[in-house]
Structures are given as structure tokens and as C-alpha cells.
Amino acid sequence: MQSRKYSTRRKRTKSGAGIAEFGPGFFVLLICIFFPMLDLISIGLSYCLIMVLNYNQIQQASLVHFSEAQDAGGAVKKGIPDTWKNGMGRFVNMSGNVQTDISYRDGQTETGQGANGAQDKIVRLRTTINCNPFLPIPFFFGIPGINAPFPLVVFQERQMENPDYAP
Q1: For residue 100, which of 126, 119, 80 has the smallest C-alpha distance?
Q2: Shortest CA distance to 92 belongs to which of 76, 101, 100, 81?
Q3: Angle at the Cα of 35 (from 29 to 39), degrees rounded to 5?
Q4: Looking at the DSSP assignment, which residues form a beta bridge with residue 152?
Q5: Cα–Cα distance between 147 and 137 in angstroms, integer?
Q6: pTM score, whole prediction
Q7: What is the pLDDT of residues 17-58, one digit of tens each?
Q8: Tens-place pLDDT, residues 87-111
Q9: Which of 25, 70, 72, 143 has the largest CB neighbor count within 10 A?
């Protein structure tokens, strides 16, 4: 009986050698692949949510007078971002506040028969938010999006509904 147990242990040792590599392999898989991929997915989600904010801001800025759009306490720079922060913005890991820059440029001029030479006005809006990574990984040093904050900037242009509201 003694020899039988001994031979069983010997077989178990030969076929069970892979289990010793499971722990380090699993550690490498989690730290080097899974958690960074989770951070990259969160960056994509944050970008999409900031794009929604920028779209809502540019929609409002194209409808109102430029003085209302430029007002720091107005709907474009304060009202919409505050509403967004209480809704979709909860899923963005922000550091700081939403920064909104609004500018205007000239568009096309009407030409041709019967045209009065009216010129379109284009509103340009840039939304900047500094985001933190979803899950900071301590092994990498200063990589934005993995363990350091990173800025997300969304820029969009839209034609003014009423060109007289532009400066």
C-alpha cells in the first residue's frame, strides 16, 4: 500500500505544475490588461458624456444673444453644466469645473440674384473638463488616463439661428 500512495503523489506533482504559474499569470492579467482596459473604457464613456454636454451648450448658444451666451452665470456656461452634473455628469470622474469658451466667426455671404448680401454667423464652443482615471493603477508613473488626470476637450461649431444675435 505504501508504494501505491507514493506513485499517486508522483503523478499529481507532474500534472499539477501549471497551478504554480496561475497566480503570477493572473496578477499580470489583472494589472497589465484588465485594469488599464477598464480605465480606457471609462475614458471613452467620459468623452461621450462630455460630447452630450457640448452638444446641449452649442444648441443653446446658437439660439440666444451673444451677451447671454458669454454670461458666466447664464444658461450656456452655468445652467446646462449644472444640470448635466446632476444627471449624466455623475458618471464622469471630474477634477475641477467645466470650462466653456465661446467665440464667433463669419460664415458664408449670400450672393446671387435677389440676395441682399446677408452673412451667416457661426458660434464656436469648446468644452474642457479635467478628468481623473476610473481606477488609478499605482505601478505606472504619470500616464494620463491610467494614474494621472487628463483633459478632455470637445469643440463644435454651429450656425446661429439669428445672425443678428452674434457680435
Answers
A1: 126
A2: 81
A3: 150
A4: 129
A5: 5
A6: 0.79
A7: 667 788 888 888 888 889 889 999 999 999 999 999 999 999
A8: 999 999 999 899 999 999 988 887 7
A9: 70
Task: Record the cell numbers describing residue 163, joined without a space.
Answer: 445672425
Measure the CA–CA gap between 92 and 131, rounded to whole angstroms. 7
Contact call for residues 66 and 162 (beta carbons, < 8 A): no
Any alpha helices (H) in the chain, and if so which ranges? 2-15, 19-28, 35-61, 66-70, 80-86
**Would you state the cell numbers that stand for residue 30, as one nine-digit string?**
489583472
Which cell numbers hold the place of 6?
507514493
Q: Provide the H-helix boundaries in 73-143.
A: 80-86
Query: Which amino acid is residue 25, in one-letter code?
Result: G
CA angle 20-26-27, nearest 5°?
Answer: 105
Distance of CA 109 to the CA centre of its chain: 36
157's enclosing H/E stretch is strand 150-159
Rg (the chain; Cα; Å): 28
Ranking 2-11, 66-75, 82-91, 154-163 by mean pLDDT, the lowest is: 2-11
